[in-house]
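Morning!

As promised:
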Amino acid sequence: MVVTSSTTKLKLPEGSKGVLVKNLYLSCDPSIQNRMRKFKVSSYADPFKPGSPIIGYGVAKVLDSGDPNFKEGDLVWGLTSWEQYSIIYGTDTLFKIHHTDVPLSYYTGIVGMPGLSAYVGFYEICSPKKGEYVFVSAASGAVGQLVGQFAKLTGCYVVGSAGSREKVDLLKNKFGFDEAFNYKEKPDLDAALKRYFPEGIDIYFENVGGKMLDAVLKNLRDHARISVCGMISQYNLGQPEGVHNLMNLAWKQARMEGFLVVKHLHVHLKFVEFVLPYIKLGKIVYVEDVAEGLESGPAALVGLFAGRNVGKQVVLLSRE
Amino acid sequence: MVVTSSTTKLKLPEGSKGVLVKNLYLSCDPSIQNRMRKFKVSSYADPFKPGSPIIGYGVAKVLDSGDPNFKEGDLVWGLTSWEQYSIIYGTDTLFKIHHTDVPLSYYTGIVGMPGLSAYVGFYEICSPKKGEYVFVSAASGAVGQLVGQFAKLTGCYVVGSAGSREKVDLLKNKFGFDEAFNYKEKPDLDAALKRYFPEGIDIYFENVGGKMLDAVLKNLRDHARISVCGMISQYNLGQPEGVHNLMNLAWKQARMEGFLVVKHLHVHLKFVEFVLPYIKLGKIVYVEDVAEGLESGPAALVGLFAGRNVGKQVVLLSRE
């Protein structure tokens, strides 16, 4: 990644059907890395073209619009580019922001795609029931912190794993997880999970993959559900680690199901109506890690894969 | 495994609530091996006690009964022991045979647990639709041969893999698979699957695990379903092989779900009513591999794991 400069006129070309925006917040998402490949990993996102700006979710302000659905001054969230100003043509992935009584940056996180991921992956894929045992990996991240809070709202017992004492402290003392542990301090993940889940795990919200998944598979309860949101520990490996314990899916009559949040945008409005009251009442909280300036973007993105972020990683370009 | 002899009176002890049976057919099932461990792999079956007879499914004739649900002369199928005569106490896993116009041995196969496994795993777990692309591994085995025929009845395109030319021939010419291949002749399983499924795989009926599963994961279509019935290639390994491509579950919004057929016995009658007419009309066929005599049992069971059986492996003790 390199930062380059050029000048542009802040006006759409005559007759353009696009939307010219000033980007305010950019979202650092692990899935961005999945497009930095030569091949297409899913049917829904092509690999980036080398030399082009990174494409990702963000919050922006409309400066000029050739699309009747948007007008100057509108605040929007959706797919934009990692640049100060962008012309967006694919406005089907651009949404007007109606609720401005939460921080705008939240549209890259708790009320954006990570929030929707937590909602779809936990409620729709896992159908949680009160009293169930829930485990969340990368639990202080953009998605995980919400899954834990949703689990508590549902009356579940929830344990989270993260990669530092600071994050473990957040899980227990800010997000209300029942228990949390630093996986780097647990060389035997199977033993750790057996201690936290003597009865086994009903629901695993999968954010990391690899060894953690393998240990979870050995600790499933009958009819367990695993929601595969991501596997961040695996994306930078030439070959992902081998997972050995899949036969437990049969022995425990368990289900492992993946999802792409981009295919659940139709649920977004319902989700926002569900989550906003909790945010306003302070019953759900959200921690962001804000990097300032476009030039801090590459390090912020790369930092995700080393767990350097604490909470949702955002890049702030401009407050308005 | 050793074969031992002793004598017994063919009469139940006074006041016994059990059922004394003469065993006619014993079923060689890969799952028997899962009970030859020191630990319990599922909540539904304890490890065998060394020195005791192997417990498995079979067909038997009632000689004496202390249970009002069974009487002398009844033909039954269900859990029995690998011996010529058995006293069965857990009669909740013993079922009367009502249809005797199919071979009795079929109650160890097509109308027994393997048949029910194919039915539940294909129809209930995978919800197949006409025109979908179906792949079955261990496709000439007790379960696989039926899954392929069910897939054809549903109007799917179905490809099977097996471990010999003889089996591949059966798949194509007896069971009506659209295509079949010998996995031992395909060092690059990924490339083989890409050739047979240029559009990808909608449904994978998993009987083998390991490298085959890994190759399938790379060839899933969006919304694919994997039904985990068993992973026979893995049971004799100290540690099962690593499966690397699980992130495709998310990228393809796919589901992988395991089941234990023993938990679906309530569907058995419905299944028999479904399958019997097809058998009688010759629209579904079934191939058995019959070993004769109790002393041939151990080699027949062990042979499953080397793929020595062609079709459902049965041990015949007595025809009546």
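The radius of gyration of chain B is 20 Å.

Hope this helps with the figure draft.
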